[in-house]
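Supplementary Note 2. Why include the ligand at all?

Several targets in our set were suspected to adopt different conformations when bound, so apo predictions alone were not considered sufficient. For every target with a known small-molecule partner we therefore ran a joint prediction. The input for nicotinamide-adenine-dinucleotide is given below.
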Amino acid sequence: MAKVTFIGLGNMGGPMASNLLKAGHEVTVFDLSKPAVEALVAEGASTADSAKAATQGAECVITMLPAGKHVEAVYLGEDGLLAALPAGTLVIDSSTIAPETSRAVAEAAAAKDLAFIDAPVSGGVGGATAGTLTFICGGEVATYNKARPVLEAMGKNIFHAGPHGAGQVAKICNNMMLAILMAGTSEALALGVKNGLDPAVLSEIMKQSSGGNWALNLYNPWPGVMEGVPASRDYQGGFLVNLMTKDLGLAFDNAVANQASIPMGSLARNLFQLHAGQGNGQLDFSSILRLYKPD
Ligand code: NAD
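The joint prediction is reproduced in token form.
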């Protein structure tokens, strides 16, 4: 069992840190939010006054922060963690951020002989709570192998995607496809309902036909069709529209930088931005259905 410091105890990081504790790791936590820290301390974690103090004696540091600017602020610069950590420390960033930001952190970490990987996740809050996340890692194979035992306490599928930043690239591709699938599924259901079809019957037909996909099969966006999904609790909880919009922005910036064409991803980005701009940023992303079914 390892001495792990976990920074960023939000919707994802909180349950991830909790699973590390359940697996028997010695966990120290830090977050800017006091209630988030207190919840983990109540479960047996230690804490400290700052991120730097929380990493004292850590064999492994994990961050789960909202966006690239937070990751840069925590790791880089004279006051950043990389400047303070002893050589050889394992450093894992599971935030979803731009691949180039991950590569910049990896380069700064290598200059300090720290073992860094990007390890963004898929599986949402449900996967974080159940300990069944998919980790998509980028970095040296030796570092990935070192990280696996810690990641296994929080996830079920742990992939090595390639060198530094590759985990982020794979994650961005996956979420772009998810956004397209969710918008397309909403559009098809809304068209059927306009024609008088029952959305549950149409869903069953498409699930058994060539239109079947993850969004339709496991995360139906039409309220009342599927139990236990955000659509059936007024789109509360789940994966926020604001986070999906952020990820589609990462895909767009990456496509521009690489001269890649993403017409479907760009359209999905526009739809989610429009939806977020109408005050839906804090709803689950399957609420994109409301663009097609305003009532
Ligand atoms: P969140 O906003 O719920 O949590 C982020 C936490 O980081 C907050 O508690 C915040 O106080 C803390 N934080 C911010 N700056 C900090 C700092 N400088 N020091 C310490 N703590 C700081 O976000 P989340 O939903 O947990 O998502 C985290 C990351 O995971 C994001 O990059 C997101 O895109 C990605 N992700 C989220 C989901 C999901 O379903 N929510 C799924 C997959 C990936």
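DSSP finds 14 helices and nine strands in the chain. Residues 35 and 277 are 29 Å apart (CA to CA). Comparable summaries for the other entries are listed in the accompanying table.
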